[in-house]
Design brief:
The chain is α/β, with parallel strands linked by helices. The protein has a single domain, classed as Metallo-beta-lactamase, Chain A. The chain is built from nine helices and twelve strands. The strands form two sheets. The chain has a seven-stranded mixed sheet with strand order 1-2-3-4-5-6-7. Strand 6, helix 5 and strand 7 form a beta-alpha-beta unit. The radius of gyration is 18 Å and the shape is globular. The chain starts with 8 loop residues before the first helix and ends with a helix. Mean pLDDT is about 90; it is low at about 1-25.
Length: about 290
């Protein structure tokens, strides 16, 4: 499958807006750290949820939020590990997941990501420093044998972006889905960044089939979750998509579809950046549908 590699000012504008808003509102944000067992933690702060693994081989992170959170994240790592931070795996290119790359690299970590993450960071107008770029990239999958875990990192279908990575700790039964899963809220599907609605839903269906009821699921945003939470989101996205496309097929314009409020009973999933209206526009704009 040929994957589109392009960058638009729309994606940059949204990423910048999210980044500046978070920095302004969350500069004093404290970390919330959940011990998942087996030396693995979930860290919530400003930006995407972070995964942390500690052990004899050294610490590694999954994502690193915004740059202004780096000092706090590094302190959290130091409190839980007497070994240095060795790796950071970026689940995609957005700044709320990669903003701390430079600081993490300066601390000695190697940045790892899908090929398209490096490409999109290089294509961005923000011109990241060399230290902020992934120095190890992969096209489909890579496995870390680290801290007594088999850590399987895979690139799914184009879902949130075209450079997504999902990280599975197989023996610990823990998975970090990055922004291929927003728990309890509408997802942001970055169409300009190569994401697709069809891929987003298919990806959730695939991983729901790969895990069990006891799997601890770290979403890109939202609380620690489980398979049932993923299944609920699949059902909501499928139903919402069907409602919107039915109105489109009936000849309704975008304005008329929005005015009809076909997703009114799902407005509890609205959040600061993605509400029902934006979700409708995503369904209508996505060329994969």
């Amino acid at each position: 499958m040929i994957k589109k590699l392009f960058y638009t000012t729309t994606a940059l504008a949204l990423a910048t807006t999210i980044g500046l808003t978070a920095m302004a509102q969350n500069k004093d944000t404290k970390l919330a750290i959940t011990d998942l067992g087996s030396g693995i933690y979930m860290i919530e702060g400003a930006g995407g949820n972070v995964g942390l693994s500690v052990g004899d081989d050294g610490a590694f992170l999954i994502d690193d939020q915004f740059a202004h959170m780096s000092e706090k994240i590094l302190a959290a790592v130091a409190e839980r590990s007497d070994q240095p931070l060795a790796y950071v795996i970026n689940t995609h290119y957005h700044g709320d997941h990669t903003g701390g790359n430079e600081q993490m690299a300066d601390s000695g970590a190697r940045i790892v990501a899908h090929d398209n993450v490096r490409k999109r960071l290089l294509e961005s107008d923000e011109q990241p420093s060399d230290a902020a770029l992934p120095i190890i990239t992969f096209s489909e999958e890579v496995t870390f044998h680290w801290n007594d875990h088999e850590v399987f990192v895979s690139h799914p279908l184009n879902a949130h972006t075209d450079g997504d990575a999902v990280v599975m700790f197989k023996t610990a039964n823990i998975i970090h889905l990055g922004d291929t899963f927003f728990s309890g809220r509408w997802p942001y599907i970055d169409l300009d960044g190569g994401g697709t609605v069809a891929g987003y839903i298919a990806n959730l269906e695939y991983y729901a089939g790969q895990i069990d009821a006891d799997t601890k699921v770290i979403p890109g945003h939202g609380p620690l979750s489980n398979r049932q939470d993923i299944e609920e989101m699949i059902a909501i996205l499928k139903d919402s998509q069907q409602r919107v496309l039915a109105l489109k097929q009936a000849g309704k314009t975008e304005a008329e579809i929005i005015a009809a409020k076909p997703l009114a009973d799902y407005e509890s999933y609205d959040w600061r950046f993605i509400n029902s209206e934006k979700m409708i526009k995503t369904f209508l704009k996505d060329a994969s549908l």
